[in-house]
Amino acid sequence: HQRPAAERLIRLSDDPVITHLCFSPLSDGATVLGKRWKDTAETVIIGGGCVGVSVAYHLAKGGMKDVVLLEKTELTAGSTWHAAGLTTYYHPGINVKKVHYDSIKLYETLEAETGQAVGLHTPGSVRIAATAARVDEMRYQMTRTHWHVTEQYMIGPEKVLELFPLLDINKVLAGLYTPGDGHIDPYSLTMALAAGARMYGAQIYNPAPVTSLSPTADGKWDVQTPHGTIRANRIVNATGFWAREVGKMIGFDHPTIPVHHQYVVTATVPEVKALKKELAVIRDLEASYYLRQERDGLLFGPYEKMEKMKLQDSWVREGVPPGFGKELFESDLDRIMEHVEMAMEMVPVLKKADIINVVSGPITYTPDLLPMVGPHQGVRNYWAAVGFGYGVIHAGGIGKFLSDWIRNGEPPYDLIECDPNRYGRWADVPFMCAKARESYGFNNVVGYPKEERFAGRPTYRLSGVYELLNDKASMGFHAGWEQPHWFYKPGDDVGYKWIEDEAANGGYDVDISNITDDVGVLGIAGPNSRNVLQKLTDEDLSDGGFKFLHCKSIKLAGIPVRAIRISYTGELGWELYIDQKNMAAVYQAMMEAGQDQGIDNFGTYAMNSLRLEKGFRGWGAEMNCDTNPLEAGLDYFIKLNKPSDFIGKAALQEIKAKGLRRKLSYITLDTDDIDPEGNETVWYNGKVVGNTTSGAYSYSSQQSLAFAYLPLDLCSVGQKVEVELLGRKYPAMVIQEPLVLTEPTRTRLQKKAKSKA
């Protein structure tokens, strides 16, 4: 049975305290902390919270020998031990749902596997909608969840009251119900994972703080501790709010920051004690708090608004205080009183409940609230598993994800949104603090498709044309850059491999430099684009002089440019790679040269619509780690019968031999005032059969378009299906792609017609 949070805190605070330790260097094979010291390891995991221990468990269970975990004090120290322990299948994104699913499925079986109780409760959870906008948001989420394995239902007030009978139901319009959600005891979970890790052969040393990390010439690491040094093939940083300090040992400033999070535990509430079954966990989104049963009382934790929440930014500047591990911050009820009062209105029994504990502890945030998971660029065999604001629900799934990736050489599914390399030097401390404050404070606000949030922007990563375009466009944020999403017209409302490893492992003689901050890109497209550029260069840009997909160094208006001729959204076009300091000059020269050709700006939203009309696949949508080129309809670009080998050739030959079960289909939708954007559920005869990958409105054909993965028997032109949008199923039909012919195809057909004439 799970111990109540208050009792858990008392018990942990009564653990024996080590008052002094005497360390001295050890010879190989010496006994340390009651165990044989290992001086070599396949993988060393640094950090003994639930995430780090889960990585050790999964690696060892997967058959890896010589797995070592080093914990500086004791397991669960940091954020794990005081966590509220919520578990949920729900996530607003697509890929992270898989992490949550794997976590809960592991937690359901872990006690039977290890003999160690985990205190898992699964009464389900309900996200409460108290406004019309929130109801629409839930319909939107339902649209994106049917094609996942997780159960999720939109329910009315009566069902909400059945699951949580202590609510003032007059304040509830609807609920998003997820069966199987609940909570777990983080301490017991970590100990069960540790028991499993040891059972499968992993070694766990504590207290064993890492004092330095030194890379070796062959890509290994010397991990130094007061007990001795371990030579590791790879290291995994899973150190929670110590992540920055460990990162700095090798020159990284990981953008993680501790946030003060508080939750309140009540004494026994008679109405709770009288219940015959456990209350579902509720999340009152308008009031921004979660609430669950804690034995015969209640536990609720709010997320304050950004102006009231508190960052522990001193730890970013000065480091975590020595000895901090199982301590808490001083509580501050005034900071959360607004949410306490709203909780009392929604759950009236709280008005009479006695508070017996207010827990205020550090949790780690990244700027976008998602963890940093995977290998890190810049050094070899350094893996990150840090930045977990919700480590308990992520631990099991992330441990499995990283274990599969480390052992098999590639990730088991696409989790690009958690790539640690999505941040660079531009994610400095002011940006990180502003974004963490915004992410925490906006935790439960209504989320809208294509919404932009502006805290910390712009960063120093500005293109050479930013100042010229900023007032003309609604900017989107992409890897630190401000990129035009759409350009204003009069009357508009204005708004808002993975390569180093391949080079090293393949033994290639190649130097890799990251020049992202130094070089900008401009694209010019359309039937007159050649005429515009030809005015600015002596280079022959004709079909014979500059062939499709060729790259040349040329000069435009006297400025050096690397130009690639491409089919830009299906039209004649060029991509121009230019030093940032020269971008504005090249842009202005092109705009002046194109005045008589009717030149104008276009943003990424227009580009997405245009590429869909031409049937162009998009990376991260139609093409990602969860798909393959054959089912994406890219056979034309692959020559499997060529004698030379290439990365992925053997895998594609195997896929082709086994045969496909689904293919990417091109569909039109009959909608009213709504358009698809991707990840919506596709239905046929009342059953879920697939999902869209991207969608937009086609201005050329005046209808909605989308790509969708469908079973082979539903891919034929003329096949009718339905696509769910905001709770309604709209008619859709598979059509021949593309809807609009590309420029090369049009030119070829025109030449063919002339030859016949």
Give a brief outline of the structure:
Residues 496-642 form the GCVT N-terminal domain. InterPro entries: FAD-dep_OxRdtase, FAD/NAD-bd_sf, FAO_M, GcvT/YgfZ/DmdA, GcvT/YgfZ_C, GcvT_C, GCVT_N, TrmE/GcvT-like. With 757 residues, the protein is α+β, with helices and mostly antiparallel strands.
Protein described:
The chain has 757 residues and is an alpha+beta fold. It folds into four domains: 249 residues, 3-Layer(bba) Sandwich (FAD/NAD(P)-binding domain), CATH 3.50.50.60; 159 residues, D-Amino Acid Oxidase, subunit A, domain 2 (D-Amino Acid Oxidase, Chain A, domain 2); 83 residues, Gyrase A, domain 2, CATH 3.30.1360.120; 126 residues, Elongation Factor Tu (Ef-tu), domain 3 (Beta Barrel), CATH 2.40.30.110. The protein is built from 19 helices and 32 strands. The strands form seven sheets. Strands 3, 4, 10, 11, 12, 13, 19 and 20 form an eight-stranded mixed beta sheet that branches. Belongs to the GcvT family. This is Dimethylglycine dehydrogenase.
Q: In DSSP terms, counting alpha (H) and pi (I) runs of 4 or more, how many helices?
A: 19
Strand % is: 25-35%
Low-confidence stretches: 1-28
Q: What is the architecture of the largest domain at the second tier of CATH?
A: 3-Layer(bba) Sandwich
SS-derived structural category: alpha+beta
Largest sheet: 8 strands, mixed
- Can you give the mean pLDDT? 91
**Can you tell me the number of structural domains?**
4
Distance between the termini: 85 Å
The CATH homologous superfamily of the largest domain is termed FAD/NAD(P)-binding domain
* Basic shape: globular
Q: Nearest-angstrom radius of gyration? A: 28 Å
Percentage of helical residues? 25-40%
CATH class of the largest domain: Alpha Beta
CATH topology of the largest domain: FAD/NAD(P)-binding domain
By DSSP, the count of extended strands is 32
